[in-house]
Specification:
By secondary structure, the protein is mainly alpha-helical. It has one domain. Helix content is 82%, strand content 0%. It has two helices and no strands. α1 runs antiparallel to α2. This is Redox-active disulfide protein 2. Keywords: Membrane, Transmembrane, Transmembrane helix. It comes from Sphingobacterium detergens.
Amino acid sequence: MAENKVLSQLTNEELNKKKKQSIGVMISFGIVMFIAIVVLVYLSFKTKKYALSGIAASLFCVFIPIYVNNIQINQELKSLQSKKD
């Protein structure tokens, strides 16, 4: 079983791999989220149940942890790069 490591314990190659995975997750989740938002907004106006628009807006809160993780990975990569120089 793979052991979860703190970002500061990962090597440069492992961080690059995590960065690629993170970007892939962000892109795929962003596409799914965009489709869900379009469908929810369409249904809210079609059925005149405008609360569905609130659900669509709240989907952005789910995206925040993924984005924060990506920022942390980028910061750790910059930190490793500055240590090399």
